[in-house]
Amino acid sequence: MKTLVALLAGVAGLVVSLAHAQSGDASFEQVERGRYLAVLGDCAACHTTATGKPLAGGVVLKTPFGDLVGANITPDPDTGIGRWTLDDFQGAMSQGISRGGYHLYGAMPFTAYTKVTKEDNAALWAYLRTIEPVNNPVVPNQLPFPFNIRLSLVGWNFLNFTKGEFQPDPAKSVEWNRGAYIVQGLGHCGSCHTPKSLTGGDKNGQFLQGGTLDNWYAPDITADAHKGIGSWSSDDIVQYLKTGANRFDIASGPMAEMVEKSSQYWTDPDLKAVATYLLSVGGGGTSAPAPIAADDKGMAAGKAIYADRCAACHIGSGEGVPNLFPKLASAPLVNNDDATTLIRVVLAGGVAGATNAVPTAPAMPSYAWNLSDEDVANVLTYVRNSWGNSAPRVSPTDVATLRKQLQQ
């Protein structure tokens, strides 16, 4: 059913695109390229709500400074971007300056989109002009004072933004350069997977080494063998992005959304290019810590909890069940310094992504109701220091803090 709906939506999009192409607005090929670029950039993630019309805005984006809301980017002249020109759109993408000259907040990842070529922006713009105009007033800036004052963004840009299109590296292959262009540009992978500074900008010196946003931890996706995906093959990365699962992991949370709405529809050459590039990105270079001793009091308590609550699905050896229950042994997310996502999933549960290739979306129940903060800390400390894993101890205080935040 899901495949049929997607197919019908695609056919409808082609018909609309063809109609506009015939009207002389843009060529059919350019509009179709723009449609693919919109998928590649996962525009729907921030501009389409679960029940709303495509790209009509309204998605609430939680930031450390307050809420921002994804804008209406349909061609509606009153509440969307119907009065914009291509130059206006190019300014927003490449400079973070919207129509009228006001600065955009970094939640719109223009710091990555600045790398997109003018040709690709023109195609994306041509596509956006073909979608259904939706009258949906959205107030994007809902930040409290003083963060709601856009003039402050001049200083923010000075600290955090470097303008300029992607420049291919002549010493690298065409495939590598294509992967770099996607990851650094429209894919804006660093928006989640790169640590943030106190001002909310990317710490570019730690590109793709993991970042925390909205009570989720986006793990290290560099070639680091311990914390990152250095032990994954190119085919493993392609499979993960295409299906939401591979022999190491299953996508969940915001990543599941990204796979469902975006990467499962990328072309095979683009998936391979991204894999090639990611496996070339160096990690932090730090050595893996020594695992906490098995006879540690917290480890012993965690082992008992794991056997009682976790082993039925994840197996006593932490190997999980391929494409059904995630592998915990030697898992990058498990080995990262930040345990936010692990704590969250134990407390709140989670649902894996469902794709056309892997339609089953396994779920994990919440254990917040019958595991104390100390229990959660102990079982995660055990998982993070067993079966080849080694990572810092999880603190009951960290669990209590996140539990409180999830209840708000």
Automatic annotation (TrEMBL):
Keywords: Cell membrane, Electron transport, Heme, Iron, Membrane, Metal-binding, Repeat, Respiratory chain, Signal, Transport
Chain ranges of the Cytochrome c domain: 19-132, 174-282, 297-387
SUPFAM superfamilies linked to this entry: Cytochrome c
Gene3D superfamilies: Cytochrome c-like domain (1.10.760.10)
UniProt signal peptide: 1-21
Subcellular location: Cell membrane
InterPro entries: Cyt_c-like_dom, Cyt_c-like_dom_sf, Cyt_C_IC, Cytochrome_c-type_DH, Membr-bd_ADH_cyt_c
Name the UniProt record assigns to this protein: Cytochrome c
Gene source species: Mesorhizobium shangrilense
